[in-house]
Amino acid sequence: MNAAAVIRDATHADLGAIAAIFGHYVTQTVATFEEIPPTADDWEHRLAELTGRGLPFLVAEVPGDDGLNVAGYAYAGPWRPRPAYRHTVEDSIYLAPGRTGAGLGAALLGTLLTRCATAGVRQVVAVIADTGSDASIALHRRFGFTPAGRLAGVGHKHGRWIDTHLMQRDLTTGPAAHGEP
Asked: Taking a C-beta distance cutoff of 8 angstroms, is the pair 7, 114 a contact?
């Protein structure tokens, strides 16, 4: 990771950058099944909901020409709405275009897992769209996620059907209990 990068809690001031990063993935890729980019106001509601539940919402901040800039973000959200799922979350990690390959995703995921364990989360699920790149799968595998299934043709975006890979990590045993890879 870039030695100058800082992983910290997201704040209201970060939401414009988060909306811009995610907007790129919504409009240009199949990495998310969203089709309309959420606004900064939408992200304000998501930030309040997740932090209100005690779940982590993080940003990776790196030095830029005009000071520190948000280069990526990660958060844990409820896996499903039913109460029995309350100890299971789904992770989301997105990096600004041009910021991949520098270790920011690993820094975000490692911190996210540590914070999830501290919050009492037992299971973390990753739902990874089959974009044609294995980078997200490889990242999750490095952090102890194991394959939990594949859903064929469950999304349709940009004129094609997309599969998703499901991966899972138990935070209650071994190194996973401490958010370590």
From this structure: no
Dihedral over Cα of 81, 59, 148, 156: its sign: positive
The radius of gyration of the chain's CA atoms, rounded to the nearest angstrom, is: 16
User: What is the Cα–Cα distance from 88 to 113, expressed in whole angstroms?
Assistant: 12
Tell me the pTM: 0.93
Give the separation between CA 145 and CA 176, rounded to whole angstroms.
Answer: 9
The Cβ of residue 39 has, within 10 Å, a number of other Cβ atoms equal to 13
Q: Residue 115: which residues within 8 A CB-CB, separation 6 or more?
A: 56, 58, 76, 179
Query: 88-147, pLDDT tens digit by residue?
Result: 999 999 999 999 888 999 999 999 999 999 999 999 999 999 998 899 999 999 999 999
- Indicate the fold that domain 6-178 takes in CATH: Aminopeptidase (3.40.630)
Residue type at position 9? D
Q: Which among 49, 59, 50 has a CA at the least distance from the CA of 9?
A: 59
